[in-house]
Amino acid sequence: MITMNENMTLLYVIGTTLCVSFVFFWVIFKIFRIRRAGVPHLVAIIISFLLAPFHPLGIITVAIPFAIGYICGRSTRVSINPFDTFSQRIKLRDEEYNLRAAQLIELEKGVEMERIFLTENIDWTDKMSLMFELMGFHLYKRAPIIALLTSSFYLFIWSLVNLEGQLLGELSLFLFMLSFPYGTTIGELVKYIKGHQPPALPKIMGQTFKPTMRSFIRSFIWTISPAVTALLLIYIRFRYEKTGLISILLGVLGGLSSLYLILQTIIVHLQKITLLDEGIFISGLGRPFGLRWSDIEKATLRERHNIISGTDRLLVLYSKNGLRWAYNTSTLSKRDEKILLSEVRKRIPTAAIFDRGYL
After folding, report:
1. Dist CA 136 CA 247 (whole Å)
2. What are phi and psi of 255, to 5 degrees?
3. How far apart are CA 60 and CA 55, in angstroms?
4. Which CATH class is domain 272-358?
5. What are the angstrom distances between the C-alpha of 227 and each of 64, 79, 224, 254?
6. Which segment of 118-132, 182-196, 208-222 scores lowest on mean pLDDT?
């Protein structure tokens, strides 16, 4: 049977996992300038669930209420007229729902909302309907932090149930009841993320070059090397002596380093470069940008030998206003890289720089 001290330790571990995961991914998103509100919160929750204890009966217990709650939280149905309780309800797109929430919350801050609640021309049932709709919008705007906070408690109960089978009978009803509101919270978070998506980019007509899967696999092998080295070190120390705090810290550091490199590799290999008659355009997970050929002063092609992938090439573009942009052309196929560099050399002065050393 799990003791009170073990319960508190479990709660601390869950809370720490949530907080560390959230802070880590929030920093990563800031570093790479990825504007996806709520995504670090959702990723932290998913990672915490994956690390939590698992029991098949636990999934069976929570599946139906969680799914129903998720559907309710994901719903974007609102009244056409917020001042009429019995007005027709319509389903909005996530962006429209976010806009309506912002408009009503902004209206609430002014004196107009006070007049609406004080006037006798509007029935009290309509006022209550408007109040509940406003409460729902306020919860929607705070969905990321609410989901993060409620996940700590829900994961604590989930872990207790899955750690010991005998607790399943005692806590199954409680976990069943919690799963519906928790599913609603996660549904609200997904709706918040969908509603805050960056606007879709217009389709750009031109010659587009994308990184290859072969390049991604080679880079991925390189990125997991710190984690593999750390795991081997821990295994050797554990095999021949007790694993100390230094070994654990080295393992954590190696794992975080690999995670950072993996995210960086994914972001680099999701970047596309498009050649246009007017200029060059680079898009991906980060903020897209483009340059006219007339605005580019010069370009450099930096090369360095890589043991795994051969020769790495980085195309750096220098604009006339002093800014510069870079694209890793070695992620492309040999044919695409040759076409891209040939086109760049035709349009702007390009110099090759060979960096010493190996990667």
Report:
1. 48
2. -65, -45
3. 9
4. mainly beta
5. 38, 52, 5, 5
6. 118-132
